[in-house]
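For consistency, the fold was encoded as tokens, which produced the following:
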Amino acid sequence: MQATEIDDLCQARGWSRARLIHELRRVARERNVELPADDSLRRMIRQWAAGHRGFSDFYAGLMGAVFGAEFTTGKSIAEVRESHTEPELIDRLHSAATVDSGLILLLEQQTEMLRVLDRRLGAVHLLKQSEQHLIQVSDLLSHSLPGPHRAALGATAAEAAALAGWQALDLGDAAEAWRHHETAKNAARESGDPAILAHVTAQQAYALLDADRGGEAVQLMQYARESAGTAIPELMRSWLWAAEAESLAAMGEGLASRRALDEAARLLPAQPTRAELPYIMLDSTHLGRWRGHCLARLGATEAVEDLTASLESLDPTWARATAGHHTDLALAYSVRGQHHEAREQARKAQALANRTASVRQKQRIARLLSSGLN
């Protein structure tokens, strides 16, 4: 058995070994089984591929579920590949060949539906659906031929991967968020759309922020903004400046953060439309919320006014965003020494974070409470 044979099975699907590990874990989760650490799985895969280790009944079952083939203990990868890979590859190529603008629109609408549900229900209810959607779109992309439909699929896959990455981050899994954003960046390059590439690159920096690597987050956001230049819509440029302001605020860079917020406000269109950038939600209300968040992190007392004003216009069905807003208000009130108001805002934030099971917001609230806001 040659070392390349297990890789050939993955190659037929456009998978890396990291993706194979992800798929094994997905199937194991469905069966309520805990797999060993990634290092152990990587070692086992190397041994299987090199013919130094046979499949146990358990792993033969997992591999069979992943590849849609009948794996049996001791059956060689070469035999499975010979009997199953070629017809499956042909089927996948046929599926990709049926892609047209109507199907791409349906896939984009599915991504948008998942976005809306995510805002209202939280990632814990939707991450698995988002990842399955991403697998489907990525599979079509990896088996499509060059042309306009492949580029459009690249854009669709990038948006789907970025959504899954954001949901993973909300559930406290920065490593998984980073991996999904790597997928998003690769798909965005296929799309040839600099706005999408800038968006998913800058959003990936939030995994660095949550890992307490603020300096690197600033660098990545600046790289995304500078690489895109003026070749992207002003709404996207405004978003990039606002995201950069947040990372600068996390580093305590008050002056630079305020300047970035000013640039975001200057570039924000008077009447933003989502038609061109459906993955961006930014208007004066959201920018005011963003500004208040940055000022609260910087310890600026005027953050209360910005946050209070934007809260009045914020859609109350956006449960996770509203939880973050109340957390920011709690922080801003505590800076002012208004501890009663701060505790009330923290209580509201905690209730919403519990409702959406947002690990990210729960961690923010816990840090705030541990700082003396009792």
Notes: Residues 4-97 form one domain. The radius of gyration is 23 Å. Confidence is low (pLDDT under 50) at residues 75-84. DSSP finds 18 helices and no strands in the chain.
